[in-house]
Amino acid sequence: MADPVQTGPAMPFWRRVRSGLSGGTLTALLGVAPFVAFAILFLILPTLGLVVQAFVGPDGGFTLQNIVDLSQPQIVSSFSISLRISAASAAIGAVIGLIIALAIIRGKLPESIRSTVMTFSGVASNFAGIPLAFAFLSTLGRLGLVTVILKTVFGIDLYRSGFNLLSFWGLTITYLYFQIPLMVLIIAPAIDGLKKEWGEAAATLGATPYQFWRYIGLPVLWPNLLGTLSLLFANAFGAIATAYALTGSSLNIVPILLYAQIRGDVLQNPGLGAALALGMIVVTALANVIYLVIRARAERWLK
Amino acid sequence: MTRGKPWAWVVFGLAALYFLLPLIATVDFSLRIRRGTYSLDAYLNVLADPRFQQTFSYSIFIGLTTILVGIFIVLPAAYYVRLRLPQLRPLVEFVTLLPLIIPAIILVFGYIRLYSSSSWLPLLGWQVGGQYIGGPILLTFAYVALGLPYMYRAIDTGLRTIDVQTLTEAATILGANQFAILAQVILPNIVVAVLSGAFLTLAIVIGEFTIASLLNQQVFGVYMQNVGANRAFEPAALAVISFVITWGAMGMIQLLARFAPKTARKE
Amino acid sequence: MAAEFLRIDKLVKAFGTNQVVKGVDVSFNQGEFVTLLGPSGCGKTTILRMIAGFEKPTSGSITVDGHDITTLAPNKRQIGMVFQAYALFPNMNVADNVGFGLKIANVPRAQREARVEEMLKLIGLTGYGKRFPFELSGGQQQRVALARALAPSPRMLLLDEPLSALDAKIRVSLREQIREIQRELGITTVFVTHDQEEALSISDRIVVMNAGNVEQFGAPFEIYNRPQTRFVATFVGQLNTLNATVADAGRKSVQIGASTVTIPALPATARTGEAIALTMRPEAVSLSDVTGRDIQLEGRVAEVHFLGSVIRLKVDLGGNTISLDTFNDQRTPPPTHGTPVRLGIASSDVLVLGS
Ligand SMILES: Nc1ncnc2c1ncn2[C@@H]1O[C@H](COP(=O)(O)OP(=O)(O)O)[C@@H](O)[C@H]1O
Ligand SMILES: [Mg+2]
Predict the structure, then answer these.
(1) What pLDDT shows up at residue B2?
(2) Which domains does chain B carry?
(3) Which of C91, C132, C134 is opposite residue A219, by nearest beta carbon?
(4) Which pairing describes strands C156-160 and C79-82: parallel, antiparallel, or unpaired?
(5) How many angstroms is it from C128 CA to the middle of ligand 2?
């Protein structure tokens, strides 16, 4: 902060820029230029482009027809399935991940177990996509190890009883393989941040462990939990490779529909493809806005 | 001395079951290509497949390029935001989180609409005799976007552990210019952090399917998908190989963390 | 003396094979302010946590008001506790923190709010109810923690180094405030510190601990002036040591350098000709011969520390070095380095400590 003129927050932007140019700020701006260019060209413009195209008709003029067309049954049902799978895998992943993180930290499991779990979580949270589908086909597919063992040893025929890996629950169970570890990775530091003394102070004031979690533990973790939940949700909502490798295009989820549309314009309307993309953007953005709003309300006590 | 609470062991046991079963099943399946006996034939088939060799080495190449481009984009930005432009920090952090929020398929869809056929940007949209040439470059940028959250976080964490201000001033007094400071003073000091970002990027990129497939790039992920659609046991072998690669990349990060400066924990 | 309120009986705590509390026997009276004093790691916190119920004693018992609470759950003990790191709930404002115990006890809202107001007034933070912990200074946070612990009217108050994280000035003023509030409420209090000055200044009685054992239990005056062990004597306050030889065990006469003096405190076990160490507080030594100071020694000033109202001198006696305190005198500057001086010590102030 050599030059106080540079950082005055009340100063108009142009003054800041102009006074900054005389110092090292020009170099600094040049230094961030590649990042800014990259962000504009490969993150912001492509996304905005799709948003705009969603409102452009075949004639090149403005239209809401593409948005209206999203209501066709195939698209509605794809959103419904996608939303359910994402919500289920995010919620279940978050709860199970939280329980595992609590077990290794609050359950005082040995340090070696903790570090193994954390390393494994790093691996498993990145073990998504095509190979994950192969792994679950080998496990719960028609010839999968677990399917076979359940049938031959326990006499339980999974597929007879209605289970199918290429279904809502099949995909959810598969997604949990990366959702749970992601939750563990993100929430573990937050649980570490819960001070032992808070629990003890609560206990001396008469609180049961349940009351501690009800009034202190969960409220303190809440912003983190929600943030992770929306991340897990977006993670599942945009995921396609695993589902595609598992089911080909037989499972009608939004990203697979969009994939097919990009490949071969199956909806026979480029604008509708963009509208589909807009739908996905709105859903993930909404998940994050909800998180930000709730976090802002919790912000009162966050430093 | 910590013995752990019983419920915690139960949770751990159940979790271990869920996470290890698919691995065991996959390994088991990958060895069963010959009836009645375990064999490594599925692996040998895969490794001997020239398409495997091509796509795998191409993926590695794209991965390394992605890392280099990523460092070039992220390092100066993170450095100057820390040193001179702290008011940009919230914006930069928001941008680096975008790839976690915008699904990859949306990004690639946007790229195709924006750059593929009638691109107004050079290098991305060359078409030579109907052959789409800009693909590898576009693919690299797409992968830089995928790796951005991790690369930025890794580098920013690295910068936090060193005294950027003092190092820069010291180097400036010694007559170094900005480029030399970044390349010769800052980078060597945060090489561990940069490498862990690099390995994470590699782990994400190496088996990526969606973007590459839509850009018609013959990478390892696309190859795996093809094999999956046509073979029975080789996919399991590929899954095991992928898992080992991911584990290796994460293991490298763990290993690197041990070499991180001891003063690193400031938070 | 008031009735015995807290009784600790043959209390032992081992972590694995490491015994950190080795059979502690003490009992405290109703309304008493007792301090556990000892070097860090001697087991003070462990004892406090056993009283609170967070550690299970390996053996022994803890009785409060005639009821054995050794195995009672912490949330059933009605004991207030204040931690070194404040440990305020970050998601609650000051009023909710203070009212938490009452809420858990299902006290009606109106009554609860009145009690919270009362407690905030007691700690001098009226009007701070809506603030969050991070908006308060360390001293304010610790006062809120105190109010939170006291709000449900616990039977006893435990404080584990509550002042250690604070600045020196606030530390002194807050400890006076804690003592004042404790007196006002008449609540039996166990205070843990490793700071002997803190312990001496606020306690009714002090338990001096070392390596899991109680070294001495008594009022500050007793602990300081009549330490029963070498550890207590050295840990609490400054101590001078003089090497001497027993000249005549029967007559309790001892030879220091060239002079022979009578030491009333010489134990009966001393043998003639034996080498012993005599100890005394710095304030028991005076410059020049004041009446009644029957031990006279000569030496040279080695160091002069001007501390303000007190001047601490180190005097080299040829082999022994003695610290002594004299009051600042506006008219007479302190002796300078190398000045020959005469020291006077009353033989009745000399302590003879077993090794
Ligand atoms: N949970 C524990 N496990 C193992 N050893 C412990 C534990 N808690 C305390 N100790 C050991 O017991 C001894 C006494 O600790 P403590 O009561 O905290 O000392 P003090 O409060 O007097 O500084 C120390 O040596 C400490 O390392
Ligand atoms: Mg302690």
Answers:
(1) 54
(2) 7-39 (no CATH), 43-257 (1.10.3720.10)
(3) C91
(4) parallel
(5) 30
* Domains (range + CATH), chain A: 13-53 (no CATH), 73-302 (1.10.3720.10)
ipTM: 0.86
Q: Is C20 in the pocket of ligand 1 (CB under 6 A)?
A: yes
Q: Strand ranges (DSSP E) for C263-307?
A: 275-280, 285-287, 295-306
Dihedral angle of Cα C290, C326, C234, C85, to the nearest 10 degrees: 150
**How many CB atoms are closer than 10 A to CB C275?**
8
Q: For testing the chain A interface, which of C72, C89, C115 should be mutated: the one with the most A CBs within 10 Å?
A: C89
pTM greater than 0.90: no
- Average pLDDT per run of 10 along chain C, which is 355 residues long? 80 91 92 93 93 92 90 91 92 93 93 93 91 91 93 93 88 91 92 92 93 92 87 85 82 79 79 83 77 77 87 83 84 83 82 68
Backbone angles phi, psi at A123, to 5 degrees: -70, -50
C85 to A197: CB separation less than 8 angstroms, yes or no: yes
Q: How far apart are CA A201 and CA C75, in angstroms?
A: 9
H or E segment to which residue B136 belongs: helix B135-161
Per-residue pLDDT of A109-141, as tens digits, reads 888 888 889 888 988 888 888 899 989 988 988
Q: Which pLDDT score is estimated for B140? A: 93
Taking the Cβ of residue A52 and every Cβ of chain B, the question of whether any pair is shorter than 8 Å is answered with no
Chain B closest-CA separation from residue A232 CA (Å): 10
Chain centroid, CA A216 distance in Å: 26
Within 8 A of A36 by CB-CB distance, chain B residues are 77
Q: Pairing state of beta strands C205-210 and C33-37?
A: parallel
Q: What is the mean pLDDT of chain B?
A: 84
Residue ranges near ligand 2 (ion) with Cβ within 5 Å: C 45
Binary contact (C134, A301; C-beta < 8 A): yes
